[in-house]
Amino acid sequence: MDPISSAQDIPRCELCETATVHSYCDFCHVNLCKPCIGDHISDGYDKHKIVPFNERRSTLIYSRCEIHPHKNCDFQCEDCGNIFVCSSCTASKQHKGHNFVEVTEVYNAKKEVIKKDTKDLENHIAPTYEEIALDLENQLASLDGGYEKITTTMSKQGEQWHREIDIVVNKMKSELSEIKAKHRDILQKHLNEIKHIQSLIKETLQTIRKIEKSTEVSPTIDYSSKIREFSKLPPKVSLPTFISKPIDREKLYSLFGYITPLSTATEENVLLLDHPNISVRELLDEPMLVTTIQTGYEQLYNVTCQNEDRIWTCGETNDIKCFNIKGSLLQTIKTKSEEPPSAIAVNSDGNLLYCDWTDGTVNKVKNGKIEELIRLPEWTPDKLCVTSTGDLQVAMYSDDGTQSKVVCYSGSTEKQTFQLDDKCKPLYSGNRNIKYITENRNHDICVADRKAGAVVVVNQDGKLRWRYTGHPSATKNKPFEPYGITTDSQCRILTADSDNHCIHILDQNGQFLRYIDNCNLRDPYGLCVDNTDNLFVCEYFKGKVKKIKYLK
Q1: Alpha-carbon distance values, 207 to 95, 214, 217, 271, 361 (Å)
Q2: Which of 64, 428, 537, 548 has the fewest CB atoms lying closer than 10 Å?
Q3: DSSP string over 199-210
Q4: Taken in order 337, 338, 344, 346, is the CA torsion positive or negative?
């Protein structure tokens, strides 16, 4: 067994390899026994730093000054690009009036950075890359199967189309058979009438021939012509025709289905170290209605989750109501202005927030008392959300109704404004129409701009990432006008398409994933998602909140 490296042996000198270690050279990083210290420093090298073994790696190894070789560089000159300088340099004309920082301060600060980076690399980044690599391997392994499943779905759709076409063709054939039978009856009726008329014509001919040969006065004078009667011929009945419509291949293609493009981000994905790892949750094949809560509002605008068991709601009255999941009313808050609030949210402390459009304020309800947080001169607060850092994002419009913007507040202090893109064009439509807002887990700000018919997403720096303007559908015929918007733990975005009675689910890059159009949804409006990814949906005219499970 190696006496130097054995984990079960006490540390040994690395020169003689037998004696117990006593000291350590902090420059050469060598274990030394007492007798070997002299041998180690006998080379005359002046940078050796001999310290007790238990204080090893504690001595800082400074750079030597190029101008004053006998001195260490204990400082950095901030005005000269942070070059290393010694104490003599700091007093020289070259560095007169410059700012200096001690190397030890920079060293210690950078050590903390290294310590944090090591922790992040070991605990977050490396495991995440391992998970990604494993996931990519699994995706590659299941790629053929996944595409085969899609192909099978297409084939089933094709078979269904063939069946539907056969049904249409058979129905038309049945209709044609009925027309044929009716046509036969009409022709037979006409034939019978014609034969009867033929017999009458024959009798008439016999009669008039007798009269023609006769010289009797009375029969001749009594004769009445039947030419007009026999000239009324029966109507002709022609065969029906089948008029085929031209096949519009493009229309058929759009009606048959839609292949979503590969969901590849146009920006780099960023690992969020301040969030715990979230397991991947796939969409259910068929979302399920969990429960329905009747709120009593005739028009229901907003819902927000306080926790997994409680929700706050608001509508056309000045009452903000809190319900438990069983539908029991727990608390009612009346707005200070006695007007309906335009938006509600719950902050990280569990306090209710609401926007009052009548006086331009954002208010907090704490212990049953209303406190004014923000007052907006010349602007009206419309919708708001609470960010992961506890800030407020408020969507607002100018009092003259010509401009819209989103402003981020820390408490009552304005931090950031999102109004124009990098070409100085408005991000949002300038009007008083509602613009629901939410923050995604990747810190994107997502706005449902109803009047623009778009979901507008900017990153945390205010740069426009993408716009979503709806998804082609043969059954969703009304224009896309998004109302409520929310996000889940998977960075998916859900927005309410009230006029088409459905909810669109998008990924974080704006790619359409699917609709929620079952659960007997009618006029979906405000949305929110709780901490376990249950979706809560306001039904505007029914005054109901529906809790829907849509993830596996």
Answers
A1: 145, 11, 15, 111, 108
A2: 64
A3: HHHHHHHHHHHH
A4: positive
Which residues, 6+ apart, have CB-to-CB distance to 351 below 8 Å?
364, 365, 366
In whole angstroms, what is the distance from residue 534 CA to residue 550 CA?
7
Residue 190, exposed/middle/buried by CB under 10 A (0-12, 13-18, 19+)?
Answer: middle
Beta bridge partners of 89: none
In this structure, are residues 464 and 499 in contact, taking their beta carbons and an 8 Å threshold? no
Structure pTM? 0.58
- Compute the half-sphere exposure of residue 252: CA atoms within 13 Å on the CB side of its CA: 10
Q: Which amino acid, residue 508? A: Q
- Mean pLDDT over each residue of the chain, to the nearest integer: 88
| Both tokens assigned to 551 | 């993830």
Q: How do strand 482-487 and strand 454-458 relate by DSSP bridges?
A: unpaired
Q: What is the SS3 assignment for 302?
A: strand
Angstrom distances, CA of residue 433 to CA of 73, 341, 360, 428, 486: 64, 15, 16, 11, 18
Q: CA-CA distance, 40 to 115, in Å (whole number)?
A: 32
How is residue 500 annotated by DSSP? G
**Token pair of 378 as six digits:** 């010349």
d(CA 102, CA 94): 18
DSSP string for residues in 78-101: GGGTSEEE-HHHHTSGGGTT--EE
Single-letter code of the amino acid located at 485: I
Gap between the Cα atoms of 262 and 110, Å rounded: 41
Interhelix angle 126-213/249-256, nearest 10 degrees: 130
Tokens of 135: 């996931």
Q: Nearest 5°: phi and psi at 18?
A: -130, -45
Span 88-122, pLDDT tens digits: 999 998 999 999 999 888 888 888 888 888 888 88
DSSP state of 258: -
CB 455 within 8 A of CB 428: no
Q: What is the pLDDT of residues 39-96, one digit of tens each?
A: 888 877 777 888 888 877 766 778 889 999 888 899 999 889 889 999 999 999 899 9
The 10s digit of each residue's pLDDT in 151-195 is 998 899 899 999 999 999 999 999 999 999 999 999 899 889 889
Q: Which residues pair with 543 in a beta bridge?
A: none
Residue 260: the pLDDT is 63
